[in-house]
Each structure stands twice: as C-alpha cells, then as structure tokens.
Specification:
heterodimer
C-alpha cells in the first residue's frame, strides 16, 4: 500500500473514532493497531504489550501524580480566598484594578499547579463573585480569567511539559525552566492589555478604591507568603539542581498538606477526595500517554513521519513558514481536541519533521504549550471554557467570545517567541547542572 | 453482582492511591535523608547515608500500578477524555447506540491488550527475568499488576456495555450528564 493511501486511511480512522466518542486513549491505540496490521508483518500484540509497559514504567513520570496531587490539595484548601485577599490591595490602584487579581492569581497558582483547568477553577471560584459584587465588567472579568487560567500549563510545574518531556525524552527540569519567562511575558502582555482597555473604557471600570495603608499591605503579604514559599521551594530546588522534578513535587505535596493543615479548610474527606481525584487524573493522562506511545511505534513502522520529514526537508521551507503552518493546523485541531491529545499526536507524527527543520525540541515544547493553551479557550471543546461554564453558568460560545482578545494575545506571544527564542532558552541554559 | 463489581473497582482505585502515597513516602525519605546528611556535613559529623535503594526503578513500577489500577474507576467517573460533540445532536436512541458502539470497540482493544500483557507476564515468569537495580525483583510481579488492572478495566467496560444494552445509562454517561447539568444550560 502506498504511503498516501495509508495516511488517509489512518486519518479517517482516527477522526472517525474520535467523533463517534471513543475515548482518546483507545482511539490512539486503534489507529496504531490498524497501522500495524496494514503496514507490517511484525507481531502486533507483543509489541503492544512491550510498549504499554515501557511507556509507563518511567521514573520521570512519577512527577506527574505528585504535581497533580499537590494541585488537588491546594484546590481544596483556603488558598483561593487567600490569594484574592492577599493580591487585591496591590492591584487596586492600577488601571483595571482588581481585574489584575485574575492575572496575578493565576500566575501564582500556576506556579504551584500543573493544570490550566485547576488554575482557572481555583482562582475563578473566589475572584468572579468578588469582581461581580464590586461592579466590574463581567465580559472582562471572565475573559481575563479564561486567558490567565492557561498559565497553568506554561508556568512550571506543568503537566503538559511532563507529558511532552516523557514522550520526547527531553529533560523535564529544562522544559520547566524554559516555560518560566514566556509565562511571565504572557502575564505582562495580558496585564498590559487590561490596562490599555481600562484607560480606553473608563466608563466600564468601577472607581478606584482608596490606597491601601502600609498595615494593610503587610497583612496582605502574610496571606501570600505560604504560596510564595512553596513556589520558591518547588521551582527553586529544580533550578538550583537540588532536586529532581519528582522530588520537588513531593516536597510540594508535603508543603501543600502543611499549608492547608495550618490555615484550615482541609478535613479528612477532602484529603481522600484530593487523593482519589489525583489518581484519576493521573490515570486519564497515563492512558493517553500509553496509547500515544504505541501509536509512535506503529507510525515508525509505517514510515509516515520519516516521509513527512523528508518531504518538508526537500521543500526547503523556512522555519517561520513551517511554524506558521503548524500554528494554523494546531489551532484547527484545538477546536476539537484537548491539549494533551494534541501534544501526544504531535510527538507521534510531527516531531521528526520539526527536528529536521532544525528547531530546538525544548523551544518547540514551549511553542506547543502556547498552542495548547489556545486550544483550552477555543470552542466547542476547551477545558477552561468548561470550567468557566460551570462557575458562571454562561454558554461555551459566549465565554469564548469574551476570551477572544486573550486568544489573539496568545497568537502574538507565539510570534514574539519565534522571533526571540532566547526568551525560552536562556534560563535553562543558565541552570546549574547536577 | 453489582456490589461485588463495585467493590473490585473500589479496591483497584484504593490500590492506585496506595501506590501514589508509597511514591510520595519513599521520595520523601530520600529527600529528608539527603537534607540530614547535608546538615551533618556542615556540622562536621559523619553522614548517615539514608537513601532508598532502587528508588528510580520502584518509582517506575509504582507509577504503572497507580496509572493502571485506577482505569476502571476513572472510566465510571467519566474521567477519561472523549469528544462528546455529536452526542448532543443525535437524540436518546442515537446516544444509546453510540455508547454501545464505542464500548464494543473499547472492549475489543482492552481485551486484546489484557491478553497480550498476560502473555508477557507468563513469558517473564518462565524466563525468570529480574529487575536491574540493587534490590532484585522478578519482573513478572510488577507486570502482573498491570495485567490485573487491564483485566479489571475490560470487565468494567463489559459491565458498562451490559448496562447500556439493558437500556440504561452506563455509569460514565450518567457521570457526563451530571457534569453537564451542573454546568448549566449550554
């Protein structure tokens, strides 16, 4: 069978099964099985069993359940309200006022959580009702939250980067550090947009509240201190080469338990719920990862990624042209697929093409995360939209429209990152090696 | 029957949680051991040298256990990701037909996986392969945990198919609906 026919059959199988509502992990496995049956005479079952074991029996992956668990504990703690109380005195006087709490709160929570949905939910639970009662424009309140919630995947720790690192055998510690500056850059861009918007729409912003006293500021810092310490312990120990990502994550779990134990708000039941929730999220991701790993091997047998890479090489496209084409492709995929599925499909099929074009795999990981963040806020399938829907009760498409400016800023950020790749690559380059 | 099956799924999930707690515990011992040694070194005293042997290897085994044993519970709680886009447009009958179709495909794949993983376990048992770390473990033991997880997962899928064929909502579909209702009108 020629490779074009095979590719078309496999694409049809993949999207057909996904549309029918087959679970993503199964759909990936099914495409891998079809590919193996059509393209090879190799023993499919044996290879499948070996790959399932090999893809999950990986030490680096233990960071995944630990970071998820840490986020689940903090999600159930008082952190959400503490972040709001701690941040609001500092943002009151800025143009846009407490809207910045969404951005800063998400950036801070993202630094202790690896998930965008958890970040959106934790910050939104507290900030949206507060912003509403103070008369803020709800379109902007929901839009900033939808956009900023996506920091969860970019600012380390990041579940997406662990998945990408495990699938491409890149250092997870380096990927984490590479995400930090782009994450902060994105936060600055969002904050800049909010300021600009509020200066242009003064009639839609409530009057600024009085300047906080020194006493209030110190008190507010007290609320933020535990989170900041936790961030320093987790990210600092990875950067300093003191701890592997898993070790940092376990320190994070211990810290999260200590914080929620001291500040209250965590009983026996919610502890068990946090553990069960973390186990299920881990399982969901691991299943997709295992399916993708088998698909990668199966695709290797078909030779499709090689052919694709060689074809791209012959065309002599510039890196920009290739990245622009990929960006459009990913945005379209992002309408229908969730972030993790996009990442694993990419690593199975597209990565050889990217490395052939001379693109740094660490940098591409960050690029991919930005794209995945867009998929979180594009309808009809976008996890941040689902979370916001359940908090606000508004429709998916309405929320997506509110998030549109932030989607466009994300596109702009990928352009900036492409022109200045050092934004991602500088920090991991300075990392102390172990 | 219902009660027995739910107990099995619950026990598997408890096993997954236990594996996670064990990872955390072992890694914490390792980290604390290192911290204690650093402090002792600064005080000019001898190191205790507390460390967990073969941690990287056991971590991998425990991750497999955590991931695979949670499969059935995650299925029933609608934790596994899927695209539910066209389900909204096909009516109650279409919903039931599609649920049955995806379950049949899933059972085929899960059964195939479980079968070949069992063969792999038997193979490892016969050949007597062991782990490479300082603590030697016959490799069939952690692999058998994966086989158990996949078998229970296949059973859970069949369980859901039976429910669907009897004309009820399978547990995963009910969980998805509950989530949609909670999320309010679309």
């Amino acid at each position: 069978m020629d490779i074009t026919t095979l590719s078309i059959i496999l694409l049809a199988v993949l999207f057909g099964l996904l549309l029918l509502g087959l679970w993503v992990g199964f759909a990936l496995l099914a495409v891998g099985l079809v590919a193996m049956e059509l393209a090879t005479t190799a023993p499919t079952g044996t290879i499948l069993a070996t790959r399932l074991w090999g893809s999950l029996n990986v030490w680096d992956l233990t960071a995944l359940p630990m970071f998820i668990w840490m986020g689940e504990i903090l999600f159930r703690s008082r952190l959400s309200s503490d972040l709001f109380t701690g941040l609001s005195p500092f943002t009151r006087r800025l143009p846009g006022g407490l809207l910045h709490v969404n951005i800063l709160g998400c950036a801070l929570f993202a630094a202790v959580s690896g998930s965008s949905a958890a970040t959106t939910a934790t910050v939104g639970r507290m900030s949206l009702p507060e912003l509403k009662s103070r008369g803020y424009d709800m379109r902007m309140a929901i839009g900033t939250l939808a956009g900023s919630g996506t920091f969860g995947f970019l600012i380390p720790p990041s579940i997406i980067l662990i998945v990408y690192g495990a699938a491409t055998e890149q250092s997870i510690a380096r990927l984490f550090l590479a995400g930090l500056l782009p994450g902060l850059m994105l936060a600055a861009m969002f904050a800049g947009y909010v300021m600009l918007w509020s200066l242009l729409h003064r009639d839609r912003v409530p009057a600024p509240e009085p300047r906080p006293t020194l006493r209030q500021r110190v008190r507010a810092l007290g609320f933020l201190l535990p989170t900041v310490l936790l961030i320093v312990a987790v990210i600092g120990s990875i950067y300093g080469g003191l701890a592997s990502p898993t070790e940092a994550a376990v320190v994070g779990v211990a810290g999260a338990l200590a914080i929620s134990g001291l500040t209250g708000g965590l009983d026996r039941d919610s502890l068990i719920e946090a553990l069960r929730g973390a186990a299920m999220t881990t399982c969901m991701i691991a299943f997709i990862l295992a399916g993708a790993s088998f698909l990668t091997v199966a695709m290797g047998f078909t030779g499709i990624p090689r052919t694709l890479a060689a074809w791209i090489g012959e065309q002599g496209y510039s890196q920009f042209a290739l990245l622009s084409a990929l960006l459009v492709f990913f945005i379209v995929l992002g309408f229908f697929l969730d972030g993790i599925s996009i990442v694993v499909l990419t690593t199975s099929v597209i990565l050889p093409m990217v490395t052939t074009a001379g693109i740094d795999p660490i940098w591409f990981g960050i690029f991919l995360v930005l794209v995945v963040e867009m998929s979180q806020i594009t309808p009809p399938v976008g996890f941040n939209l689902f979370v916001l829907q359940s908090i606000t009760g508004r429709g998916i498409f309405e929320i997506a429209a509110m998030a549109l400016p932030f989607f466009l800023i994300l596109v702009l950020a990928t352009a900036v990152l492409s022109i200045f790749p050092e934004i991602a690559l500088w920090l991991p380059g300075t990392m102390m090696s172990r | 029957m219902r009660k027995a099956l739910d107990t099995v799924y619950g026990a598997a999930l408890a096993g997954a949680c236990l594996a996670m707690v064990t990872i955390a515990g072992l890694v914490l011992i390792q980290v604390l051991g290192r911290v204690v040694d650093e402090v002792l070194k600064d005080l000019g005293m001898a190191r205790l040298g507390i460390s967990v042997p073969s941690l990287a290897e056991f971590g991998g085994f425990l991750f497999v256990a955590a991931a695979v044993l949670a499969l059935p519970a995650t299925l029933r709680a609608a934790g596994h990701v899927r695209v539910t886009l066209i389900l909204r447009g096909v009516g109650p009958l279409g919903n039931r037909v599609l649920a049955a179709v995806v379950l049949v495909v899933a059972i085929g794949i899960a059964g195939f996986m479980a079968w070949h993983v069992i063969l792999d376990v038997l193979d490892a048992y016969r050949s007597g392969s062991v782990s490479y770390g300082r603590i030697v473990v016959p490799i069939w033991i952690p692999k058998a945990v994966m086989a158990v997880g996949l078998v229970v997962f296949t059973v859970a899928l069949v369980d859901e198919l039976v429910t669907a064929l009897r004309g009820h909502d399978p547990a995963f579909r009910a969980a998805e609906r509950a989530r949609d209702v909670q999320a309010g009108p679309r």
